[in-house]
Design brief:
Layout lengths: L4 H11 L3 H6 L7 E5 L6 H7 L4 E3 L6 E4 L9 H4 L3 E3 L6 H5 L7 E4 L6 H10 L4 E5 L3 H13 L5 E4 L3 H7 L4 E7 L14 H27 E11 L8 H10 L3 E4 L17 E2 L15 E3 L9 E8 L19 H9 L9 E4 L2 E4 L12 E3 L2 E7 L2 E4 L1 H6 L8 E4 L4 H7 L4 E2 L7 E7 L2 E9 L2 E4 L9
Parallel strand pairs: 5-6, 5-8, 6-7, 8-9, 19-21
Antiparallel strand pairs: 1-3, 1-4, 2-3, 7-16, 9-13, 10-13, 11-12, 12-13, 14-15, 15-17, 17-18, 20-23, 21-22, 22-23
Helix pairs in contact: 8-9, 9-10
Length: 462
């Protein structure tokens, strides 16, 4: 791999005697990883059914390496939302943000959703996740991954951080800022990033990062925690951005994210490095920052800082207005078939579409909302059509009419290709939840022995 000369010079000055080892890491292939969706199953349960060879990522409890020749996205389990394909180091920020069930959490730069889906899994269905990305096109990919993972308590937004800060000042318990960056840590995995680096450099992204982190700081509740991360080596974008925050927001201080992790029993942080305040003449607390180097771990480059906001007076919020309305007879009959405890007062009706509106969410009027909660389905003339998102959010025990296919059954792929399939066996006509090995994929409507396919066309197996 031919690296930009300016990049080589910068890294040589930073790493000194480690530079040769760092350079040799570019002769190695990048590591492929996947992260188990603990909303649906435990890591041990996944290990028992995993159809390809995997090994644990030492510092991620639910993360695994897989052979780069495998294609885990071409397996029905991927379409059941059992795992997310993610570079191993990129799993670290969401893993080290100490999210607890019931927290109000913001993922500010969330697309395509790798970190949001892990934050949602840590919430365990309690509290709120607001997943935002300023790019509307990227936010569509974020929305798909949130729904594929079966997340019930998320709102997906596509707005500038400045606008969000006007709605959520002092609101969130935890915030993740995986900031746009020059991407130096991903050169090995995605060499095309080098052209972007040569075009924009470090300063362009550093200006964005300083703006974003101040807006994020404004949205954090007193006593709350914020994690800032990048996938670059640049001192300006890393320690430099944190130094800028500390100078402008003295109520913040830097924590050691490893010491703040609740359970370290199953993980090893061997190979992790700490921040280098001397590189930017910064305060000593920058030593609590974390750096991941590709010559020290089996992963790419990453930088992580956990910050805490000193306590002061909190801002009160009133819940946003829910668009109450009458469910159609068909919608009410279908919802009564679900063995799920939902508060009917949280069901929001918008243009005949039903959403499960997260509790304690303030008014979002004026924001560009991709999804105001879990999309349950649509009331149409004399019928109700449940959504793909609802199917993904269910467990097999939460709906009575099930067609459970085996992963190796050809009908499973036919279903994922949105084809009509013939069914043999004793099943009732009507809506069926189609599953693979006990994990929901989507809906079908059965008439006799013919299943009309209701899998979302935009998710079709290609």
């Amino acid at each position: 791999m031919t690296l930009p000369k300016l990049f080589e010079e910068r890294m040589k000055n930073l790493l000194e005697e480690e530079y040769t080892d760092f350079l040799h890491s570019y002769d190695q292939k990048h590591y492929s990883g996947l992260r188990v969706n603990t909303l649906k199953l435990t890591p041990k349960e996944f290990e028992a059914i995993c159809p390809f060879e995997i090994t644990r990522i030492p510092w991620i409890e639910n993360g695994y390496y897989y052979n780069g020749n495998e294609q885990p996205a071409r397996h029905p389990y991927y379409h059941a939302g059992l795992y997310y394909i993610q570079e191993p180091s990129a799993m670290t920020p969401a893993n080290l943000l100490p999210v607890e069930p019931g927290d109000k959490v913001l993922d500010l730069c969330a697309a395509p959703g790798g970190k949001s889906t892990e934050l949602a899994a840590k919430l365990k269905g309690e509290g709120l996740l607001v997943a935002n990305d300023i790019s509307n096109s990227r936010a569509k990919a974020l929305l798909k991954n949130i729904e594929l993972f079966g997340v019930r308590n998320a709102v997906v937004v596509s707005e500038a951080p400045a606008k969000l800060a006007n709605y959520f000042e002092g609101y969130f318990d935890k915030i993740l800022v995986d900031a746009p960056c020059s991407g130096e840590g991903m050169f090995r995995k995605s060499p095309s990033i080098m052209k972007n680096w040569e075009q924009y450099g470090v300063d362009y992204y550093n200006k964005l990062q300083k703006e974003i982190i101040l807006y994020a700081a404004k949205m954090l509740k007193p006593g709350g925690k914020m994690l800032y991360s990048t996938c670059t080596f640049s001192t300006e974008e890393n320690e430099g951005t944190i130094k800028y925050l500390l100078e402008n927001c003295p109520e913040f201080h830097v924590l050691n994210p490893i010491e703040n992790k609740a359970d370290k029993s199953e993980v090893s942080y061997e190979g992790f490095s700490f921040g280098r305040p001397e590189w930017i003449e910064g305060p000593e607390e920058l030593k609590n920052c974390i750096r991941l180097w590709p010559h020290k771990i089996h992963g790419e480059g990453h930088f992580i800082t956990l910050l805490e906001k000193s306590s002061s007076q909190e801002i009160g919020y009133s819940a946003g207005k829910i668009n109450y309305g009458n469910l159609s007879d068909e919608a009410e009959a279908f919802m009564n078939q679900l063995d799920v405890e939902w508060d009917s007062k949280q069901i929001d009706i918008r243009e005949d579409k039903l959403y499960l509106y997260p509790q304690e969410l303030p008014s979002l009027k004026g924001l560009r909302i991709m999804r105001p909660g879990l999309f349950l389905g649509e009331m149409k003339k004399n019928r109700f059509e449940p959504s793909q998102a609802l199917a993904s959010s269910l467990k097999i025990s939460e709906y009575s009419q099930i067609i459970n296919l085996l992963a190796e059954n050809p009908d499973t792929i036919k279903y994922l290709k949105c084809e009509t399939i013939d069914v043999s066996g004793e099943y009732k006509d009507g809506w069926q939840l189609i599953c693979v090995d006990g994990y929901p994929l989507g809906w079908g409507k059965l008439t006799g022995q013919t299943l009309k396919n209701k899998y979302l066309p935009g998710w079709r197996w290609m």
